[in-house]
Amino acid sequence: MSLPNPFNTRGTFEANGATHSLYSLPALKAAGYAIDRLPVSIRLVLESLLRNCDGKRVTEDAVATLAGWQAKAERTAEVPFVVARIVLQDFTGVPLLVDLAAMRSAVDKVGKDPKIIEPLVPVDLVVDHSVQVDFAGSAEALAKNLDLEFTRNRERYQFVKWGMQAFDTFKVVPPGIGIVHQVNLEYLAQGVLKDGNDTYYPDTLVGTDSHTTMINGLGVVGWGVGGIEAEAGMLGQPVYFLTPDVVGVHLTGALQEGVTATDLALTITELLRAKKVVGKFVEFYGPGAKALPLVDRATIANMAPEYGATMGFFPIDEETSIYLRGTGRAEKHVALYESYYKAQELWGIPEKGQIDYSVDVELDLSTVVPSVAGPKRPQDRIVLPQLKDAFKSLYTAPASDGGFGRAADDYGTTVEVCHTGIVSESGGGSQETAEAGSTLASEQEMGDHPTPEPVMASHDHGGKVTNGSVLIAAITSCTNTSNPSVMLAAGLLAKKAVARGMTVNPLVKSSLAPGSRVVTDYLNKTGLAPYLDKLGFQTVGYGCTTCIGNSGPLDPAIEKAVVDNDLVAASVLSGNRNFEARVHQNIKSNFLMSPPLVVAFALAGRVDIDMSSDPIAKDENGVDVYLKDIWPSLSEIRDEMASALKPEVFKALYSDFTSQNPKWNEIPSSVGNVYEWDRDSTYIQEPPFFTDFSLEPGAIAPITGARPMGIFGDSVTTDHISPAGAIKKDSPAGRYLGENGVEFVDFNSYGSRRGNDRIMTRGTFANVRIKNLMVAPKEGGYTVLQPEGTEMSIYDAAMTYKQRGTPLIVIAGQEYGTGSSRDWAAKGTNLLGVKVVVAESFERIHRSNLVGMGVLPLQFKDGASAKTLGLDGTEVYDVVGLTSDVKPQQDLVLRITRANGTSEDVTVACRIDTPIEVDYYQHGGILPYVLRQIIARN
């Protein structure tokens, strides 16, 4: 069979003394395309189009359009990107596997072979999101947390094991190995791959986690998508996206002494958020980019979702080869990798003027200073010495300005906690006493966690909890734990602190969750691990932990002190996300920072401190210790770095996961090509997406008589929408579990129950901090049922509306759907009966996911908003002009009929952005569309 040869680009290259095949990008020059001027990231996507140009999924017109990319052109064309592989984490991967199992069941019911549902590209699922920090501060924490993880998630893991045997291309990295993005960087990514026709091509991917972009630091094109898009990609559909603008970030200079890669990542996040790069590719270049170690590039790329970009890409050069060799990839493979990218003229970091970018941004690395970000968003950077004043200012600032809206007189409220309970208070609050280790904190607030060991307040500066107290200090998250420079800096700082006899206040819950076992290896070999242990930063697990809300419980007495006195306590973490109620639902102030700063703030025990001039604490001799006294120098870090990356360590730790994980081996699994659903399971249920499945799609028609489920302000995140964290006992999901015989202690988390739509639908829009303006100032998942005007939970109201046949609408402000690529934020929206979401602007992934679930996204125009229109939730809404011939991004009319009978027509933009999305919407979502395509082919 002859292979396609679009634009006569099929060619060869030499590597390792042999000739190999490729689709040549430089060959496009002969067709008149200025390939040399294209951003590197665009060229890598273009190669996929060339190689997959079959006239159906990818046409020659699509290749020509992208090859002719113009930096400043209007963006109307969609790119059909066929990826090489797909990466999943377990929170998003399990529901994706549930959907695949449901598709097999649907195919089986219509008399077809269920094996026609099979991933057509390799899929790797890394189990990294399930471990929780129930135990911390002891040598046994790791083993105890792992035991509890397997106990809690046994049923889920059985289901994952069924998937391993049912699907040929579905592989699993079991618990206890590392965080998906670090495992991807250190092990899964190969840089260049080969197909069945011996054609070599670039490693590309999408992943069901926003921070898939971390791999951009290795020169690999990839980004986060929702699970529903990933499923389509698995089943042979291209990942469609609008041709992007590419923002070129020209880096010059070098980081100064005392500045970390984390400081740089936070600075870039703030800079690029202000440049409005949502939905755009960002490409770093110039001498500053060239000089950055790959681990620093990966740290910056990881934060792309925080600055809003689709990618934060670094091109391929000598540094990528050094990293591949250092992490155990075979020398022969690295030689082939280099030869391939040189043959494609993709080798080397570009210089200024070589590439045409849509937008040009400059950053001199020498201007970066130590920073933190918070207390509610990762883009809100605060220069380190200004944190003290900033925190005090935010304490009284209104919530609309990112503050906490408190009275200045309450700032000094202090509660002293010790082993006998709260012994004294000042500045107001209850006089109730709570003993450490007791269960006085409410079950609803404690969530799904068992009571931890008692905390003894015996430190010199007492067990005082006040506004600004650090109660959680976590070295966690792929962003920084993949970077030896900042991890070793944390170890060196801990060593210097221990040498001065410093200790961490025992009211601080400190933890270390390395991104892979490699980190433990080099911390042990450098002799730094014992010092982190001494300060309470013992390893608690190999997973995301605190950064995704798996921070585990606070001591009940501490939590009671915080809740009863409504304190604005703090967490400090080396993560990438700090949205409201994410880290812990009762810790209102959360700051992102480098691992060494996490240790420093744990020692200080508070965030209202100027680290440039205030002492952190006193040493064992009563002498003040300042940050500068214990901060490691760049030369000290570089000396330790020499022993950090050893190829043989990576080879050993990333081989034969089965023998290294006996607990995983003990998990049984069912067999067969079709999953046998257990109707009594509270973890895995057959979802309703294919109920009454028909081979024919529906018709697009106007939406009439919709009632508002919620009216929301700006920056409603997927953390607010999608069920996450602890399940409250008195919530709709908690009541469901209780009615199904599940004891409160066994509730587990929403994330662990993503395979059960009954629970997830009940938890959608149920975040304790979400603010529905229809019930303001009340927080939480509540709405007002209309026309009765009765306040109730969003779930209960949605079910009432569903019984009445009333469609629902959501009204929102700017940046709706910011945050993680949570498909349940769209799935839950759909299952609640929401037919349309109207927002001032959308975050990229969530807008796409809404369309993928058959929910219509509309965007206000000309400055219109819920506020300017005076919406209060009593209105009835119609979407006028919505027909089967709807065009991408066309204008529609939102008709608002008020309670007094008057109506108003408002022009809105239809945010179905591409032609394929029109098809998805007509079919009721991407899953029914793909299933009908597969059945038609077979």
From TrEMBL:
Source organism phylogeny: Bacteria, Pseudomonadati, Verrucomicrobiota, Opitutia, Opitutales
Record PROSITE patterns: ACONITASE_1 (PS00450), ACONITASE_2 (PS01244)
Protein name, as recorded: Aconitate hydratase A
Organism in which the protein naturally occurs: Synoicihabitans lomoniglobus
Pathway listed: Carbohydrate metabolism; tricarboxylic acid cycle; isocitrate from oxaloacetate: step 2/2
Database matches in SUPFAM superfamilies: Aconitase iron-sulfur domain (SSF53732), LeuD/IlvD-like (SSF52016)
Keyword DNA-binding attributed: no
Residues covered by region (Disordered): 423-450
Boundaries of every Aconitase A/isopropylmalate dehydratase small subunit swivel domain copy: 735-862
InterPro entries cross-referenced by the UniProt entry: AcnA_IRP_Swivel, Acnase/IPM_dHydase_lsu_aba_1/3, Acoase/IPM_deHydtase_lsu_aba, Aconitase/3IPM_dehydase_swvl, Aconitase/IRP2, Aconitase_4Fe-4S_BS, Aconitase_4Fe-4S_dom, AconitaseA/IPMdHydase_ssu_swvl
Aconitase/3-isopropylmalate dehydratase large subunit alpha/beta/alpha domain location: 69-605
Keywords recorded for this protein, A-Z: Iron, Iron-sulfur, Lyase, Metal-binding
Parts of the chain that traverse the membrane: none
Family, similarity comment: Belongs to the aconitase/IPM isomerase family.
Cross-referenced Gene3D superfamilies: 6.10.190.10, Aconitase, domain 3, Aconitase, domain 4
Iron recorded as keyword: yes
Cofactors, names only: [4Fe-4S] cluster
Annotated catalysed reactions: citrate = D-threo-isocitrate
PANTHER family: ACONITASE/IRON-RESPONSIVE ELEMENT FAMILY MEMBER
Listed EC numbers: 4.2.1.3
